[in-house]
Amino acid sequence: xxxxxxxLSKSIRxxxxxxxxxxxxxxxxxxxxxxxxxxxxxMLMRALCGLIRPTSGKIIxxxxxxGKDFSFPPSxxxxxxxxxxxxxxxxxxxxxxxxxxxxxxxxxDIKQVLQNVGLDPEDKRVYxxxxxxxxxxxxxxxxxMEKPDIILxxxxxxxxDEDGVGIIKDLLKKYSANSIIIVSCHDKEELEYxxxxxxxxxxxxxxxxxxxxxxxx
Amino acid sequence: xxxxxxxxxxxxxxxxxxxxxxxxxxxxxxLCIYFFKNSEILVExxxxxxxxxxxxxxxxxxxxxxxxxNNSIDMYKxxxxxxxxxxxxxxxxxxYPTKDLYSSGIQTLIRSNKRSLWxxxxxxWNIAAVTLLYAAGVAGACIAALxxxxxxxxxxxxxxxxxxxxxxxxxxxxxxxFLMPLMTLVALAMLQMTLSFILKPIFSFIIVxxxxxxxxxxxxxVLIGNCAMLxxxxxxxxxxxxxLSGIAANTVVILISAAVGLIYFSNADILKRG
Lengths: 217, 274
Prior knowledge:
The structure holds 2 protein chains of 2 kinds. By secondary structure, chain A is α/β, with parallel strands linked by helices. Chain A has a single domain (2-211), classed as P-loop containing nucleotide triphosphate hydrolases (Rossmann fold). Chain A is built from 6 helices and 10 strands, in the order βββαβββαααβαβαββ. Chain A is globular, with a radius of gyration of 17 Å. By secondary structure, chain B is an all-alpha fold. Chain B has one domain (2-267). Chain B is 64% helix and 1% strand. Chain B has helices spanning 2-16, 19-37, 56-64, 80-92, 96-101, 105-111, 115-147, 170-198, 201-214, 234-237, 243-267; strands at 43-44, 51-52. Chain B has a two-stranded antiparallel ribbon. In chain B, a hairpin with a 6-residue loop joins strand 1 and strand 2 (51-52). In chain B, helix 8 packs antiparallel against helix 9. The interface between A and B is medium-sized, with 26 and 27 residues.
């Protein structure tokens, strides 16, 4: 799978939030989005998953234009900003309800992904009783459960403790074999550890594109 | 997958506020009791031994009778019961679609592949939710009628001194009495839902409320609130305009709301609502 972003610009109420961005993503890699608050990372993710329409330019996924050939990428998992689920449902029930739309993830898949992110699938606590870290883990589980071709994670390790961060990083490495994973993160070290390539954004523009040199272990 | 999305999304929406159906039944039931207690109910019939008690149809006519809209201003009296019920239904379905979109519903939306499917599922939900609230209200009225010993769908002269629905069969009369307010409430709720995506829900409610309120002053199919005021149904009372005009007006509002909403939603940016 290949995603090509071609001269993407987006203005909202007269303010340019994305300015002539071009980039390319391929399966099997983890891409990092770096930049300060307001640099356009989240807006770019929203554009990539079809939630906002480009003012100009286009996003092409395997030869098909997003917003023209389909409203949303056919196989995508998303965590953008704060995860939001139904407060009176358990984590498992929330994921089951969402999974029922596509019927791609079985109960076993859901239980497995919950375990993978460090949540107990049998936990009877409802979502509103979850800690911030647990909510974030559930958001990640939701993005991963259908093993999508594209995984977008906006600040996935926010509010997650040190052990959890390790678990999530290992998990993303595992999923990256068959997917395009795009992660935004404020922590430069974490992002470099996770990513194969990093795009640095500033004021809605692409400032830098670098390949991360990995040390052989 | 499209059917699956529509069914699941609609069921989830209907499931989200189950308590409202109970509130609806209680509210309508309470209004029926209020009507019973505040009216001269025991009308003696020609057969002096018999008395008439209000039927379900009477109760419904009381709740949705509204006002004759073309009366002069000095005759004007706010149709409080009618307005109250319409406001209740509109508020009951006000927040869910936008709240869902900007929270957990975003996961459903992204998995829908097509924005139009998601919008269509919300339209179905809206129609189903209003119908269920209305059906719960009918149930409340039925229970009240049972309680007072008047459970039937006949019509008496309790609500109006003059006979209503002259020349109509009882089935036609009941279809008009029960279906016209429902259809209008669905149309108003659809209009409100579409506006709530373009504006904020509170503004969409205010606009729809004012549009509805205007119907109490002027009688025209353009002001569809009239279709939910049974006093303005020509076949029932000889005043206002005919049922077919009302059905056509409601249908136009439903279709325009759905179409405008679809066009808007297909191109809208879905951003975090601040």
